[in-house]
Design a protein that fits this description.
It is built from 15 helices and 9 strands. With about 375 residues, it is α/β, with parallel strands linked by helices.
Length: about 375
Amino acid sequence: MIQRAAASFIDVLADWPVHRVRELVYSRTPADVTRALGRNRLSADDFAALLSPAAASSLEVLARHSSRLTRQRFGHVIQLYVPLYVSNYCTNACVYCGFNCRNQVKRRRLALDMAVREALCLSELGFGHLLLVSGEDRIGVPAGYFEELTARIRGRFPSIGIEVYPMSEAEYARLVCAGVDSLTLYQETYDPVVYARCHPFGGKGDYVTRVRTVEAGARAGMTFLGIGALLGLADWRVDSFYTGLHGHWLHRRYWRQHVSISFPRMRAAAGGVPPAFPVGDAELVQIICAHRLFLPDAGLVMSTRERGAFRDRLALLGITRMSAGSRTMPGGYAAATDSEEQFEVLDHRSLREVMEAMACLGLDPVRKDWDATYHDRTGRQTGLS
């Protein structure tokens, strides 16, 4: 199915051109779906069947399988995290993003002292898992910025992640030594033609480098690797197949790391384009449940892009990690800000409110589930992978 021996996932993609994936997904039949639902270990063909139009009539069965498997693998735990945006300056012209460098929006970059203040505020609110986010602006927020920021706040957070611009393996290694343990980098779309059209200007237009960057983070010693596609940019069935394929390959190639997949749907953003392939609620459920059956041990992540009540339902079906109390602009926690959001937030509940909702569903909301001892044992501090 997927050759572990491939040096990079870009080599795997060469064997899975878009036309092949599209033909595979759209040729699946109800019999293929039934066969996939009856298997303990899914092939790529089975995964395609669960993403296909033929699976829509089996959504209830798919959801039950996904829920049961999630409880078996993850128990009732739902991990909570919070994003901290440090800058909305960007050098890219991504057509779907509020941070697009061509947009006339209010820009802000947090000085290190202010970023530390925001982080400490989040720690006092009870968050243990922090995700540092920025637009792709190497000059304004260089790698050293994140290295120093992490070193100053690491004692307050058992887990610090980054979702920023692509870096080199050496830069990631320095961040690992400073205390960063997770890397999130969305491919946005795996369709190279659509990718080029959506990234007309800036370094993000380099499709191959984007694919390879997660692997650089893995080699540098990042413990947690997060990937995803922006659902709606291209055919969501095709992009979802690629995210599963990518997650499967990363899991096999970098078996010491933990792989997670996010499922962001396109939302309103300043200057953004509408989705070319809108994803409905039932379709998003299908995507998430198909990934759970294909990747039983992967973390599945949901942001505040979705409505609160809907996120609660997804937590019962397969999601194992979600954000809470999010602000998608620089600042906004310790002090007010009028800078632009990256995307529209639909779940405005506080950490406490999200925890109470999870508890009412019989889930165990966790803000901290490991500490430095875990990382010492897994080799994060020494950069081992």
